[in-house]
Write a structure and sequence with these properties.
The structure is a single chain. By secondary structure, this protein is of the alpha+beta class. It folds into four domains: 29-94, ACT domain (Alpha-Beta Plaits, 2-Layer Sandwich), CATH 3.30.70.260; 116-193, Alpha-Beta Plaits (2-Layer Sandwich), CATH 3.30.70.3400; 197-368, Gyrase A, domain 2 (2-Layer Sandwich); 384-544, Multidrug efflux transporter AcrB transmembrane domain (Multidrug efflux transporter AcrB transmembrane fold, Up-down Bundle), CATH 1.20.1640. 52% of the residues lie in helices and 20% in strands. The chain is built from 17 helices and 19 strands. It has helices at 3-27, 42-53, 75-82, 111-114, 125-132, 138-157, 184-191, 204-215, 218-223, 229-243, 304-313, 354-366, 383-412, 414-436, 443-472, 477-509, 513-544; strands spanning 30-36, 58-61, 65-70, 87-93, 108-109, 116-123, 165-168, 174-179, 197-201, 249-257, 264-273, 278-279, 283-290, 296-302, 323-327, 330-333, 345-348, 373-381, 440-441. The protein has a four-stranded antiparallel β-sheet, with helices on one face. The protein has a four-stranded antiparallel β-sheet with strand order 7-8-6-18. It has a four-stranded antiparallel β-sheet with strand order 12-9-15-16. Helix 1 packs across helix 14 (414-436) and helix 13 (383-412) runs antiparallel to helix 14.
Amino acid sequence: MSRGVVYKLIFIILLIAFAVVLILPTVGEREMNILLRDDATAEQIDAIAARFTRDGHQVIKGETAVSVKGYGLNDAVMNEARTFAGVKDVKYVQHWAEDRPIRAKRINLGLDLQGGMQLVLIPNFEALERRLGKKMDDSEKSDASQQALELLRNRVDQFGVYEPQLRRRESGAIEIQLPGVRDPEAVKRLIGTTGRVEYRLVDDEYSRKAEEWLRGNAEIKEKGFPEEPAAQRELLGKMAQAIGIPNSLEVLFFFERIQNTKKLVPSRPMALEKKLSLAGDDISKAYRAYDDYSRLCVSFSTTTQGAAKFADATSKKNHGKRLAIVIDNKVRSAPSINVHITTGHAQIQGDFTTEEVDTLISIIKEGALPVDLERAEERSVGPSLGVDSINSGIKALGIALAAVIIFMIVYYKLAGLISAIGICVNLTFMLAILSWLNFTLTLPGIAGFVLTIGMAVDANIIIYERIKEELATGKSVKMAISTGFEHAFWAIVDSNVTTLIAAFILSQFGTGPIKGFAVTLSIGVITSMFVVLYITRFVYELISMKKNLKKLNI
């Protein structure tokens, strides 16, 4: 055996060993420490232990923490554990392969595999332009979207979600992925609310004209107010045009809560001054309180500048007028101004629920979004459904792998066994690269693995048939192997390059799952070519070095 062959053998062995080490954090057991609160009770600790024992995990209970070890521990499970009573925090124990110098990473699982929630929000720049009274250029729109993204990131952090993903798409939409979220409604309340709090003076004359116009509208009398925000905006636009409202005013709906359903619905139109008497960014501190009628409200203190604005709005010149409290373009209350308020302390009233008050307080602290965001897409996947998807994907991959291996061994005998080993090595390399890149694996990504198996076998079959042709011409085994690989080389490269081009186009123009499939397929194509044209060829070089080799078992 020559020195070059020995070096090749060492290189291949080390490469495979390194790939195996890289995938250990992904395919190996994981350990999670659930840190307990000081006041955690024995019943709460037992409930935590029972949750993980039921799934077959090893659980060790301690005084300050519960240690959980096993397979299937992902971000969704961690976020679920954070919601348990008595839990202070949850942390993973780092795998030794994740330490220096290897720094292996685990493959993240997409929402379809681990459960969670995905939202796609589209900025409504038209509404922002109407509010600003001017056209926005691309730079201003980009700045507004980026600012909204950062504010959303701060809001998401309040949920304590591990590994949330927020990104802007090329179209300007904002995509949010929250693995393992247990309360989607709370997320939608906090994320989907712009959080713009405004105090604006009411114009009673045009409010009366708007109500008269509505009373004369037969369609509204018959069907009532539309429920969709877009339809409500369209109706308000028609109303404003019909009553000839001046540019300094704007018509919005006053919203009231239906007692039996607790749902907020528009009840009557109200004309307001566009000029703000007080805005949300003028508020320095907000907290939960009760008004004079024992209803929940938000008490607040203003900044120095806000106190001056509020004092001017409630001064004697405006006594007898109404001051509307507007939250996200919905008038929630409109009390009359009877007292000059100079202290900078007041309340936001509007028949709120506990959740609405808490959300409003949180948003006031973080700041309002610079632009309204409309939900374009919403998807929730339960953790149990995610586990079923993983099991189904692994089952499909296992069946495909077994079927291909059996076929290759039956048809090509020893050569088929070599190709089967090559497929396993190829899958190991794919997982290693995906782990190294910290890739997010989705269900279509698993489909990419299955497709790669078939493509890898296709390359082996081309080579084997070429070798058979060369043997049929009477060439020696060594010459047939060498010529067979050389003749098959460009056919394999050409077919795989065209697949790479298609995968590249998918990754550039596709989104979400399509991009995940394209990336997995691209990596599979590259690794399969390396395994077939380098490692498999090296194996046959070793076989051809055997003296007096007269026949090849193919």
